[in-house]
């Protein structure tokens, strides 16, 4: 039986969501499930919603709080990625984001309003030795130090895409599909029995390869995530700002990497490591990537416009690139 590809597009979690499925029924049958899945995640994890579970935990930092199974799962992942990235991924960066001017949903920020004004006082760097989460999964509770405030925006988008993809693929038995949340993409089954999914990757503005077309990734099964210091950026009295905070300085990162795309089997892995490469830069980030992300592939643009292609060490590439002309290839 031939199933036609059907598409749904909507906004959630402050980004554009795209879902393409091969289904025997109309997409309208699945849209309530898909949209509610993202809506529930936003209501639970958004720091911009005072009623969210994330906001409640921030208000009660220093006290032990009961948490949902979903929050416990995400916090366990946060602990894991803190360890494997050697402290480069840290959720307790909310004060730094707000100090940089990211105090409300990004689309409402302008370069000349009061929310884009930087504060002058310095924040202490975060520890790279221990993520201060006292998580009791048996009792479904957690306690943070009283001076810690978390932002989960660096993980929950890919976690939501990954969870929805598994629901559609396993429980709803969708043989092929694509879920894209603002560039965090997971695919399965190929676009047809013989054709892969085709995913376009934007080139940053200062790429030395001045071509109008995007890089194309051909992918049957897998995931890709792109992180950039150029997309969510603004200016204030402190200069140019963006949303990728370096925990070692508690300021927007100033590394050599301005954009990184990571390809792998699991989308959360890809999103975390794309951010970490932008935060740590090529000099520190590449050895870190090689130590802990050997099954992943990366495309890294540096501030001088060069493109680095990092091949996976542990297995062959998940996908195939079209239009890729790397300046440096790391094998």
UniProtKB/TrEMBL annotation:
Tell me the GO molecular function terms: transferase activity
Question: InterPro entries of this UniProt entry?
Answer: ApbE, ApbE-like_sf
- Quote the Pfam families the UniProt record gives: ApbE
Residue ranges annotated as compositionally biased, kind Polar residues, are: 230-239
Database matches in Gene3D superfamilies: ApbE-like domains (3.10.520.10)
User: What EC number is given for this enzyme?
Assistant: 2.7.1.180
Identify the SUPFAM superfamilies for this entry: ApbE-like (SSF143631)
The reactions it catalyses are: L-threonyl-[protein] + FAD = FMN-L-threonyl-[protein] + AMP + H(+)
What is the required cofactor set for this protein?
Mg(2+)
At the top level of its lineage, which domain of life is listed?
A: Bacteria
Q: Is Repressor given among the entry's keywords? A: no
Question: For the region Disordered, what residue ranges are annotated?
Answer: 230-250
UniProt KW keywords: FAD, Flavoprotein, Magnesium, Metal-binding, Transferase
Instruction: State the similarity comment.
Output: Belongs to the ApbE family.
Please state what the protein is called.
FAD:protein FMN transferase
Which species is listed as the source? Paenibacillus violae
List the top taxonomic levels of the source: Bacteria, Bacillati, Bacillota, Bacilli, Bacillales
